[in-house]
Amino acid sequence: MSLVALPFYQKRHKHFDQSYRNTQARYLLSEYAARKRSSTQASSQQSLVQVASAQRAAGRTSSLSSGGTVCRLCAKRVSSAQEESEEEEDRSRYRSLLASYAETKRRRFLGELADLEEDVRLARTQARGTLDKFSIQQMVEEKLAWLKEQDTFADRTRRAPEILVRLRSHTVWERMAVKLCFTVQGFPTPVVQWYKDGNLICQAADPGKYRIEGMYGVHTLEINRADFDDTATYSAVATNAHGQASTSAAVVVKRFRGEEEPLRSVGLPIGLPLPSVVPYMHFDVQFLEKFGVTFRREGETVTLKCTLLVTPDLKRVQPRVEWYRDDVLLKESKWTRMFFGEGQACLCFSRLSKDDEGLYTLRVVSRGGVSEHSAFLFVRDADPLVTGAPGAPMDVQCRDANRDYVIVSWKPPNTTTESPVLGYFVDRCEVGTDNWVQCNDSPLKICTYPVTGLFEGRSYEFRVRAVNSAGVSRPSRASEPVAALDPVDLRRLQAVRLEGDKEIVIYDEDLEGDVQIPGPPTNVHVSELSRTYVVLSWEPPSPRGREPLSYFIEKSVVGSGSWQRVNAQTAVRSPRYAVFDLAEGKSYVFRVLSANKHGLSDPSEITAPVQAQDTLVAPSAPGQVLVSRDTKTSVVVEWDRPKKADDLLGYYVDCCVAGTGLWEPCNHKPIGYNRFVVHGLTPGEQYIFRVKAVNAVGTSENSQESDVIRVQAPLTVPSHPYGITLLNCDGHSMTLGWKVPRFSGGSPILGYFVDRREAQHRGWHEVNATPVVERILTVDGLTEGSAYEFKIAATNLVGVGQPSDPSELFKCQAWTAPEPGPAYDLTFCEVRDTSLVLLWKAPVYAGSGPVSGYFVDYREEGSEEWTTANEAATANRYLKVCNLHHGQSYVFRVRAVNASGVGTPSDASEPVLLETRPGTKEVSAGVDEQGNIYLSFDCPDVTDASQFTWCKSYEDIAGDPRFEVETVGEHSKLYLKNPEKGDVGTYSVSVSDTDGVSSSFVLDEEELERLMALSNEIKNPTIPLKSELAYEVFEHGQVRFWLQAEHLSPDASYRFVINDKEVPDSQVHRMKCDKSTGVIEMVMDKFTVDDEGTYTVQIQDGKAKSQSSLVLIGDAFKAVLEEAEFQRKEFLRKQGPHFAEYLHWDVTEECEVRLVCKVANTKKETVFKWLKDDALYETETLPDLERGVCELLIPKLSKKDHGEYKATLKDDRGQDVSILEISGKVYEDMILAMSRVCGLSASPLKVLCTPEGIRLQCFLKYFTEEMRVNWYHKDAKVASSEHMRIGGSEEMAWLQICEPSEKDKGKYTFEIFDGKDNHQRSLDLSGQAFEDAFAEFQQLKAAAFAEKNRGKVIGGLPDVVTIMEGKTLNLTCTVFGNPDPEVVWFKNDKDIELNEHFSVKVEQAKYVSMSIKGVTAEDSGKYSIHVKNKYGGEKIDVTVSVYKHGEKVPDLQPPQQAAPQRLPPAAASAPAAL
Length: 1474
Hints:
- Helix 1 (23-66) runs antiparallel to helix 2 (72-157).
- A hairpin with a 4-residue loop joins strand 70 (1070-1074) and strand 71.
- It is extended, with a radius of gyration of 59 Å.
- With 1474 residues, the chain is mainly beta.
- Mean pLDDT is 84; it is low at 1-25, 57-71, 257-278 and 1468-1474.
- The chain is 14% helix and 40% strand.
- It is built from seven helices and 98 strands.
- Strands 90, 92, 93, 96, 97 and 98 form a six-stranded mixed beta sheet that branches. The chain has a five-stranded mixed beta sheet with strand order 2-9-8-4-5, with no helix packed on it. A five-stranded mixed beta sheet has the order 11-18-17-13-14, with no helix packed on it.
C-alpha cells in the first residue's frame, strides 16, 4: 500500500507505462527495424565477397608462378583444392564478421532504444505535468462556474414571502373541528407562526387543542372540538430573511340556543347617506350572522363579518356593499381591507388604532332596497411605554399645505386614568423613509401646529405624541401623506388656442411682459392666532415675474416705528408663515416683501395690530347627564351640550361602579353627538356616569355625575302564556291551567286575562274583568256538549302583553272516569348535560280515589316512542331524570296513578335541550361571621321581576319558622336558624324571569356536622396563633421565648407560667407584648441549669382565649443550654480579630482549589498566616485584611497536597484559628468538584492517529487519575488492556486503540462522574471516520517503520575539522540502516575520485571512514557523506580547513556534532558508491 496519497487532481488523470503504444505503432516500428537490418546485411555481404575473390586470384597467381611448370591436371586439382580451402576460410571469416556485425548492431539498437525510452519518459513526464495543470485549471473553472451558478440561482430564487392562497373565514357549530389553510411561497423557505387575536398559539400550552402542519408551502391550523371561546381572528405570519407576509381570517363558533330574549337596543343618532348608484337587479338580502359590539386594543387585528343570504345568487351580478364608520363611507387603505363574496361581507383591520373606533354600519344596496346592520367597535389604548404615560393622540390631519409649510391638527386622548396632558410633540417623516424628525422643541399646549421648513415637491407624513408628568405616550397613527406644493400654481396656468385645434399651456406671468423685480404681496392678514405664534397669509404679487419668488416677513411693535426682519436667514417660498417668539401683552403689525434674483419688492400693506393670545378656550362642562336602560350589558347616556362649545371636537364619557370611586373611560375617541350607548357593562351592576367636552385646547371639567343605575334590560310587557290545559269539567264549567310567560318584561306579572269563544264563532268573549293572579281558573256558564277554545294574556306594570295562541277545542262534557285526570304545569330545573329535575302539580280531577303516585315518560324530540323514567310510581311531585344524552332535546309527560289505574297523561312538555348553561353556578354552603349556617346562590341574570324560590325536597319553604331567606340583588341566602339532624335533605333554589336558572344542594349528615362544628368555633372563639410558643437564642447567650397571635385587641392580656408558677415581669424575666403584630415575648439574660421545665403562655382577649406550651426537659433543655453557652463564647471571641466565616473551599473555573475564609474586626497590626501541617505556607501575595476575604489557591490538586491547613489571626486583642483537613472525604469531594468543572468544560472527543494505533482524546482543564472516568465502546465499559490502553496527562484523558481492526468500529463515549451527574462526550468511530483514521494510522505506521530502518549516521563526525598541511585526515563515523545503506562521499557537492590520496573503508556495513593522505590546501572544503537505502537516508556535511606549517592555527569554535539532513528514499546511482 502506498504511503503517499495522490493529490486530488491526479485521481481523475490516467497515467500510462510503456504499453501505451497501440498495435499499429508497434507494427510500424518492427517493420522499420527489419528493413534497416536486411539492407545492412546485404551491403556488408557484397563487400566481403569482392574482397575474398580478389585475394583468391592473387594467391593462385603467386603459387603458379613460384612452382615452375605443372601439368594442367595437377594444376587443376591443386587449384580446386586451394579454392575449396579458400572458400572455407571465406565462409568462416564471413561468419565471424557477421557475428561481430550482429553484436555491433545489437549494441547500437540497445543504445537507440534506451535513448528512445528516455525521450518517451521525458515526453510522458512533460505531458503528465501539462495534463495535471490542465486538469487543475479545468476543475477550478468548473468549481467557480458552479459557485457562480449557485449564486445566480440563489439570487434568482431569493424572494420575500408571498401568500398565494389566503385564509378563509369559517362559521361552525360548537364541538366541530375547524381547519384554516393557506399557501405561501418564498426563498429561503419562510417560517410560519400562528396567532389568535394577536397572541402566539402554542401547541404545548393546550395539548390536543391545536394541530399545526406545514408541507410544500401549504400550512394548516386545525382546531379540535371548537368551543365558544375559540371565536377570534386567526392570523398566520410567514417570515424569512427578505420580508414578511401575513393573512387573517375570522372563526365564529355558534352555540345552540333556544328562543332569545327580545331586546330593543337604542341606536345612535347617525344618519347614513342614501346610495347614489343602485344595482339594476332586485336582490333579497337576509343577515344570517351579524357582527356584534367588539372590544379590542390598539395594535391588534379584528374582522367585522356578516354572513348573508342573497337571493338570487348570481356570480356576475351582486348587490353593492358599503361600509360606514359613523357617517363616513370607508374605502380600502393600508389599515383596512374589504371582502364581499361567498355569502360573507368582511371588514378587516390589520393594525387597530383609536382612529378606528366608532359605529360601523354594513349596508347592502340593491334595487330591492337597503339592508343594513350596525355595531360599535371600541379600541382601547395599548399598554404605555412608560407606566402612567397618556394614550396616543388620534385623527392627525394636515391642511393648508404649501411649498414649505403645513398645519397639523389632532384630537387629544382621554386621560381618565392618567395624569393630565402637559403638551404634544409633532414628528414628521419623508415618504419612503423611516426617519422621524421631531418638529417642536417644547411641548405644544393646543392640538394644532404649523410645521415649516419643508422641502418643495417632497411628500411627508406626520404623527403626534402626548406628554404628561409620567412620560411620553406612544405615537399616533401617521397621517395621510401630504405634498409640499403650492396649490395656487395650478390656478396660474391657462390654455391658449392656436391656429387649428392646437393649444398651449402657459403661466400667467408669461403674459406680463418683461418684469424683473416683483410687486409687493397683497391681502396680508393673520389667518391663525394663538398665545405662542401668529400665522400670516397673503396673496402672491401681481405682477410677479418669471423668476422664482421668495418672501421676507418683517414685524414691528406698535408705536416703536422700527421694523425687524423675522426670517433674515431663510427665505420663505410659501405665502404662509408662522411667527413665533412674540412678547406677551404687546401688539404687533406685520408686512411682507417679495424677492427674486433681481431684487426686493416694495413692502406690502401693513396688517392691523394684533396681539398674541389664545382665541380658543377650553369648553365648559356639559350639562345634566341622564342614563336609561338599554340591554343587559349596556345603557344609554344623554347629556346637555355645554354653554361654551367653541369648535368642539367631541365628548368623552366615563363610568364608575357605584361605591368604588374608580373611573374608567367608556369611549377612547371623541364622539360628536350628545347621546352615547355604553356597552360592555356587567349585568346587574350599578354604575355612575359623567361626561367632559373636548376641543383643540383640551378637555373641560367633568360634568355632574349621573344618578346610579343598575344595568338591566328595559321594561316591556310580558310575553304570552302558553301550555293551556283542561284540568277538569263537570258539564257546566271547565277548569283551565297554563304556564307562566317565558319573559316577564322586567317587571312582576300582576295577573292574567282569559278570553273564550265557542266553536264556529268568530267573536271572543272576556271571561274575567279583573286579572287573575293564580294560573288556574274555572270558567262557568258553559253549555254542555259544546266545544270551546281559549286564549290568555299576561299583564305587568307596563301593560297587557300579547295573548297566547288559541288553545285546542275543549268539549264541555263531565268527566266520570275512575282514573285521575292529567297532571299539569310541568316545569324543569337544574338542567345539566345528562340530567334534569322535572316538577309538576297534582291533577285537579282525582277520579274515584286519591292519587297514590306518578309515572314520568320521556322521548327524544322527533321520536314517537315513549320511555318510562321510573319503574315504580313515585309519591313525590318531582323526579330527577338521569342518564340522558348530552346535546339531545327531550319531551316529557306525567301520568297520575290511583287505585283504579293509570290516568290520562299530561300534555307533552315543550322540548328541553340537555346542556349546561355557560356560567352556571351551584348552591354553596357556609358559615357567616356570626356563626350562622347558610346556603348561598348567586344569579347574575336577575331582573327587577326575578324572585328566588327556596325549596326543601322541592317543596316551597316560605313561611317555615326553621328557615330565613335573605335576598340582596343577585345574591340570595337561606339560613338554618336552629340546625339539627332533621334538616338533612335536598335544598333547591330557582330564579323566576330567567332562562330556567336553578340549582340544588344535598345537605347530608357529614356536611351538616362539619358546618355545625365550624359554627361552634365561631360562636365560641379561640385566639388563632400564627406561631406556637418557641425559643430563640441571641448572640449574647440570651434566650427569648415568643409566640405570635393572628390579632390582638388593645384590651388583650397575657401571662407566662414556668413549671406551673406564674412569673412576673422583672430583670430576670423581661416581658413585652406588641399588640399591633400580636407578638408576645420573654427574654432571659442568664439561662442556667435551674431553668429546666415547662413554659406556658396564656392569652385572653375578650371571650377568646388561647394557650401554648413548650417543654424543655432532658435532651431538649441540654440543647438550648449548650446553644446559649456557645453563643456567649462566640460573643467573647468576636471581641478580637476573628473569622466571620471559617475556612472552606471551592473550585474555580480554572479548576484550581481555593481555600477561602472571611475575617472581621481586624486592624493594621493584625497578623494573618497560612500554615500547612503547622509549617508556614508561603504565598506570592499577602492577604488583604481590609477586604475581609483571604484566599489560598492550590493549583493542580494531588495527593501531595494532603495535610492540615490552618489560617491564623493574631493581634494584641487576641487570636483565632480556622482549620481545614484536606484528606479522606474532603479530598474526594474536591476531586468530584474538580470533575464537575472539567466535565462541563470538556472538549469534544478528537481522533489522533499514531504509529501504534488510533488515540481518542478529550481535553480538560485539569486531569488526574483519581477522577472517576470511564470509557465506553458500544455502551460497554472499556477496561485498560494491551489492545486498549487508558491514560491521560494534566491536560487530557485518552484511550489508545492499538493495532485497530474492524471490530474496533462503533461509538466511543468518555464519561466523567462528579458525584452527582455524569458528563459524557461521544464520538462515532465508524464509516468514513474509521476508514480515514485507519488509513492515517497505516501511513504513520509505515512512516515510523521507514524512519526506524532508513539509512542514518549514528555519530562520529564533527561539523568542522582543522588540520595542518601534510598530515593525514581520517573522518570516521558509524552508520545504520536495514537493509544496509549505500554510502557515498562528496567534496563540494561533487563525487570524490578514489585513489591513493583519497581512500574510503567500510567495515561490518556500519563503520565508515575516509582518509586523506598528505593533505594540502587544495583539500580544504566541504565534505559530505550520503547514507541511504530504500527507506531514505541522510546527509552530513563536514568543513575541512587546512593551514600551512608555521602559520597560526585559526580560531575556531569547538567542534560540535554535525547536524544530519534528510534524503528522500528514491534510489539514485552514485559513482563513489560502496
